[in-house]
Amino acid sequence: MAKRLKAVIFDLDGIIADTAKFHYQAWKKLASEIGINLTYEFNENLKGVGRMESLNLILTLADKSYSNEEKIKLANKKNRYYLEFVNRMTPSDLLPGVVKCFEVLKGNNINIVLASASKNSLDVIKRLEIEKYFDYVVSGKDISKSKPDPEIFIKAAKGIKVATKNCVGVEDSIAGILAINACNMFSVGIGNKKNLYPADICIKDLTEFDIEEIYLIGGFL
Ligand code: B16
Ligand code: MG
Q1: Residue ranges lining ligand 1, Cβ < 6 Å
Q2: How far is the CA of 162 from the centre of ligand 2 (A)?
Q3: What is the pTM assigned to this prediction?
Q4: The 3-state secondary structure of the chain, one letter per residue
Q5: Scanning 53, 71, 76, 211, which has the fewest C-beta atoms within 10 Å of its C-beta?
Q6: How confident is the chain (221 residues) per 10-residue block, as mean pLDDT?
């Protein structure tokens, strides 16, 4: 059956804005308050991972155990720190090539969808003033399984009633690329091919997003 390019589904962090640095600073502040030194290297494990799962990973570094109630309080506190950064975001925080890429997709009648594990993703896209481009948004509030489970990309395609084979997914994490591949979508990796080796193609950032190349390599009509 022929494939037709009908939607491009974007991850948020690392693709549209560098929110990872804000997550890191918020987690680092919280961690230091409970006597944990959160390193940049350890933080790599938290990218694309949901809030509670991230906290549980950080707490493996603690020398005491925490009750569920305490964990909820800690996660809420981290989120307040994170939102302090988000509330200062402006369109100048958009990563290169985002708006031009969206304009090209709109011009080609291709749906634009957000698939972010973040429960704050709507606030972020509002701050960045790009909310109007999205035909559909799936956030951390809508999913129960983290990437590499394909749930988030399957929900994104369902939300716009497009078969997954007619979608392209754009991700900067290996977990995200695996999630895209697992639901039979064409995967575009943003970053180093060495790290994102299962991606169908890899580009530096959205300034290199070339719709003609995707039609060709992806075998879309
Ligand atoms: P929140 P993405 C993910 O966003 C981040 O990469 C990850 O570091 C964060 O823990 C997760 O969202 C949950 O975020 O606490 O705001 O709900 O990469 O899927 O856009
Ligand atoms: Mg990401």
Answers
A1: 11-13, 20, 23, 46-51, 54, 79, 116-120, 140
A2: 23
A3: 0.92
A4: CCECCCEEEECCECCCECCHHHHHHHHHHHHHHCCCCCCHHHHHHHCCCCHHHHHHHHHCCCCCCCCHHHHHHHHHHHHHHHHHHHCCCCHHHECCCHHHHHHHHHHCCCEEEEECCCCCHHHHHHHCCCHHHCCEEECHHHCCCCCCCCHHHHHHHHHCCCCHHHEEEEECCHHHHHHHHHCCCEEEEECCCCCCCCCCEEECCHHHCCHHHHHHHHCEC
A5: 76
A6: 95 95 97 97 87 96 97 98 98 98 98 96 97 97 93 98 98 94 98 94 98 97 88
